[in-house]
């Protein structure tokens, strides 16, 4: 019987820690993905050690939640699929009396479609801030009162990116706070790809047309490679990782060159898919290599690499749309999701980078030393965060992406 991968192991740890925070005996939650056998293995031991280390923070968290005075009866939350242990949301409901209506999405385009057409029925969501213009921030997002989110500045972690308090896409954090960070890279099946061919990044895998892709996709008559959908997200990564230019060098010439590269790649791809497709696809062995974010739920024999040639540092930012109706509960939920104990469970569950300094200190040492999550300085120095796109850049990226899909 194969051993669980590192990511799968950490996901189990995160699930048990989340259940422990919620106060379930032994970390078991009926109806969850946690099995009783998992509660007696190494993952349970690591989780229980983590819970013991968090004892003071969990106690403080419960005391804080007991004192919450929230006038709203519900909060509507729209977030990435496959990313949050739902025990954490259930715990918030139980302790505050506020019902959490939780729905998920697969790509930023789904959020933008709701936001920009006035059909955003949620109080809290996550957007790719760099994919919006400053004018769109002002038009569609609530300017935040950071005094109502004290956990952000209190615990801001500058060890991964120094600009956490003042990022290029949202100076002064007027409209967003981070819930998680990571890199965009490559996940692959270690049991399907020969060890000599294991990727070090994009160039020697998903964009090696004559070598890697010709060898592995299609394989046995089946296409085995996937990419994340969306021009706003995918084209800049090609400009950075394959063309060797800045991820923010969004010119007509660079967009056109990236478009042609993606068209050349397309015959090798099974699909363009978000986490609801690449997570089970990798787990079941239908896909052998995929562009993914670091937080994917890797199954047995799946590994992730942060590309050595550089890529993007992404941030999932929490925002309150201007159309939000439950503002009080929205602020309460955001502050709760930035509690140190909650952050520990969350980032373990997804192999993410935390924006919370105390949560980082509480992580197991081998997680902090995992270079696929926290790449070394000589690698991370090649990574960039997005600047805000101009309306013209967004239009060019969208047009180019439609041309890729139509090719």
Automatic annotation (TrEMBL):
Keyword match Coiled coil: yes
Subcellular location: Periplasm
This protein's UniProt keywords: Coiled coil, Membrane, Periplasm, Signal, Transmembrane, Transmembrane helix, Transport
One Gene Ontology term of the molecular function aspect: polyamine binding
An example Gene Ontology CC term for this record: periplasmic space
Biological-process GO terms, alphabetical: polyamine transport
Pfam family for this entry, one: SBP_bac_8
Predominant localisation class: periplasm
Transmembrane residue ranges: 12-30
Record's keyword annotation contains tRNA processing: no
Any coiled-coil regions, as ranges: 44-71
Stored PROSITE patterns: TAT (PS51318)
Protein name: Spermidine/putrescine ABC transporter substrate-binding protein
Organism: Caldiarchaeum subterraneum
